[in-house]
User: Which sequence fits this backbone?
C-alpha cells in the first residue's frame, strides 16, 4: 500500500487550515531573542511522552528533559506553555508567541516552519482490543470507527484511508486528549480503534494487556522541534549544535532509554499475570512494604516490584541456589540483616528493603537517580561485587559507568569468557541482572498507576538546575 505521496501532498494544506481556524487574530510577529526575553519559550501539549507531571508535581518527559538540558546550555530558563492541541502549539511559533514547539511533532517541510533534526523515530499504528494481535486488512476497516487527534499527520493518513475505504468512519477527540487516556478508552470499549504510535501503545499495553496493534499505518517519521522561519540564526545554530552533540554523547539515547527503554521487555502474558496477582496476592503484603518504606525511604511500590520479580509475592519461594522467601534472600544476606526467618514475609520484606538501601548507599554520588536505583536493583541480583565488575568493564570499554544506558550494554558481557577472566569472581550472570532491573521498572510503573500516592520517595528532586529555572510553567492560552 502506497499512500505517502497523497498523505504528504495534503498534509500541509489541512494542517495549515486547522491552524488558521484555531486562531482568532494571528499577528505573525517575531518573538524577541531568547536572551533579550530572558527565557526560552516552548509551546507544547500535555501528554505522557513529551511533557507531563509526575507524582511530586514536577514536570518530566522525554522532550521536557532535553529542553531543560538545552536551557542550561543557553543559560536561560525554559518556560513551557501548554496548548490544547498540536495546531495551537504550531500556531504559537508561527505568530511569534514561542521560540519553538515541542509536542511529539512529526516534521513537514511544506509548513511555514523550520524543523530540527529528529530526536527519535516514530511508527504509527491502529490499536484495537483483542486477546491477540489480529491484523486487519483494508476491507476489514469498513464499518469501523477510528479516533485520531486533529491537526496531526495521522489525521491526514486517516482521512486518506476514509476516502479510499467505503464505510470507514474517522472521528476526532476533544482538545487536550492524551493518547494514553484514549488508549484506556479503547481497552474499555468506549473507542473502537485509535490511530497512535507504537511507543504510546507499548506504554498503555502494560496497563491494559487486551490492547493490540491491528493495522500498521503507512507512515514513519521522527519527533522534531518546530521553529519559526524568522528565528534568529543564533538560536537555530545553537539548537542544531545541541542536538548533534546530544546524538554523539549519548544524551538523546539516554533520555529515550529513561522513558522508553524498558517498555517492550515483557509480553502480554506477563502483564496479565501481574495484574491478577496485584489483585489476589499483593494486598496482604502492602502493610509490610509500607512499613519497610518508612524505615528505608524506598518507595514501597518499588520494593513490591522487586519482590514480584524475585518471587511473584510467594513467601515460600525457593530457588535451586538456595535463596528463599518473598525477597529471595541468601542465608548470608539474611544473617547480616538480622532476618531470622526468610519465610516470614514481614521479616523478609524489611530485610530486602534494608539490603537495597545498603547497596544504593555504596554507589558513588555521581550516579544520579533514577539510574541509581536501577543499578541498585542489578546489584541486588549479582551482588555489589558483580556490579563493580560491570562498572569497571564499562570504563575499560570507554563507556560511562555512572549511567544506566551504558551499564546495561555491559552487563551481559560479564558472562563471556574473554571478559570474565579479567575479574577474580569469574563469570557473572549480568544478563539476568539486566532483565531483573528492566522488569522491575515495568512492574513499578504499573504499581504507580494502580496505587498512586501523593509523594514518591524513590525519585530525588533535581539538583542540576540553576537558580531561577522555571520548569513547567502551566500557563494556558
Assistant:
Amino acid at each position: 500500500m502506497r499512500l505517502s505521496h497523497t498523505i504528504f501532498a495534503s498534509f500541509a494544506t489541512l494542517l495549515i487550515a486547522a491552524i488558521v481556524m484555531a486562531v482568532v487574530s494571528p499577528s505573525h510577529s517575531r518573538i524577541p531573542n531568547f536572551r533579550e526575553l530572558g527565557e526560552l519559550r516552548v509551546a507544547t501539549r500535555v501528554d505522557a511522552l513529551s511533557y507531563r507531571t509526575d507524582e511530586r508535581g514536577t514536570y518530566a518527559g522525554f522532550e521536557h528533559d532535553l529542553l531543560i538540558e538545552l536551557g542550561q546550555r543557553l543559560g536561560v530558563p525554559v518556560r513551557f506553555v501548554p496548548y490544547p492541541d498540536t495546531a495551537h502549539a504550531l500556531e504559537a511559533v508561527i505568530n511569534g508567541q514561542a521560540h519553538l514547539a515541542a509536542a511529539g511533532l512529526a516534521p513537514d517541510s511544506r509548513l511555514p516552519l523550520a524543523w530540527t533534526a529528529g530526536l527519535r523515530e516514530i511508527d504509527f499504528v491502529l490499536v484495537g482490543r483483542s486477546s491477540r494481535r489480529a491484523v486487519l486488512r483494508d476491507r476489514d476497516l469498513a464499518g469501523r470507527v477510528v479516533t485520531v487527534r486533529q491537526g496531526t499527520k495521522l489525521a491526514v493518513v486517516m482521512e486518506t484511508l476514509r476516502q479510499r475505504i467505503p464505510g470507514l468512519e474517522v472521528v476526532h477527540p476533544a482538545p487536550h486528549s492524551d493518547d494514553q487516556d484514549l488508549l484506556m478508552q479503547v481497552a474499555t470499549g468506549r473507542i473502537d480503534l485509535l490511530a497512535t504510535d507504537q511507543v504510546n501503545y507499548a506504554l498503555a499495553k502494560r496497563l491494559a494487556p487486551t490492547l493490540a496493534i491491528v493495522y500498521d499505518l503507512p507512515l514513519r517519521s521522527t519527533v522534531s522541534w518546530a521553529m519559526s522561519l524568522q528565528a534568529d540564526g543564533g538560536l537555530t545554530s545553537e539548537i542544531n549544535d545541541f542536538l548533534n552533540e546530544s546524538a554523539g554523547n549519548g544524551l538523546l539515547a539516554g533520555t529515550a532509554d529513561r522513558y522508553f527503554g524498558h517498555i517492550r521487555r515483557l509480553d502480554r502474558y506477563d502483564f496479565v499475570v501481574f495484574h491478577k496477582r496485584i489483585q489476589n496476592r499483593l494486598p496482604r503484603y502492602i502493610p509490610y512494604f509500607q512499613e519497610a518504606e518508612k524505615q528505608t525511604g524506598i518507595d514501597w511500590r518499588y520494593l513490591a516490584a522487586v519482590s514480584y520479580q524475585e518471587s511473584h509475592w510467594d513467601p515460600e519461594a525457593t530457588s535451586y541456589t538456595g535463596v528463599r522467601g518473598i525477597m529471595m534472600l541468601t542465608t548470608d544476606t539474611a544473617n547480616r540483616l538480622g532476618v531470622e526467618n526468610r519465610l516470614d514475609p514481614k521479616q523478609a520484606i524489611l530485610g530486602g528493603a534494608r539490603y537495597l538501601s545498603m547497596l544504593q548507599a555504596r554507589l558513588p554520588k555521581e550516579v544520579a537517580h533514577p539510574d541509581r536505583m536501577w543499578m541498585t536493583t542489578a546489584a541486588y541480583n549479582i551482588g555489589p561485587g558483580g556490579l563493580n565488575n560491570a562498572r569497571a568493564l564499562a570504563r575499560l570499554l570507554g563507556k560511562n559507568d555512572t549511567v544506566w544506558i551504558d551499564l546495561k550494554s555491559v552487563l551481559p558481557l560479564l558472562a563471556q569468557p574473554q571478559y570474565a577472566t579479567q575479574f577474580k569472581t569469574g563469570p557473572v550472570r549480568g544478563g539476568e541482572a539486566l532483565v531483573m532491573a528492566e522488569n522491575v521498572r515495568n512492574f513499578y510503573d504499573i504499581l504507580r498507576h494502580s496505587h498512586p500516592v501523593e509523594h514518591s520517595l524513590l525519585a530525588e528532586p533535581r539538583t542540576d538546575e540553576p537558580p531561577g529555572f522555571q520548569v513547567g510553567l502551566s500557563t494556558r492560552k
User: Anything to note?
Assistant: Residues 202 and 263 are 6 Å apart (CA to CA). The longest strand covers residues 211-228.
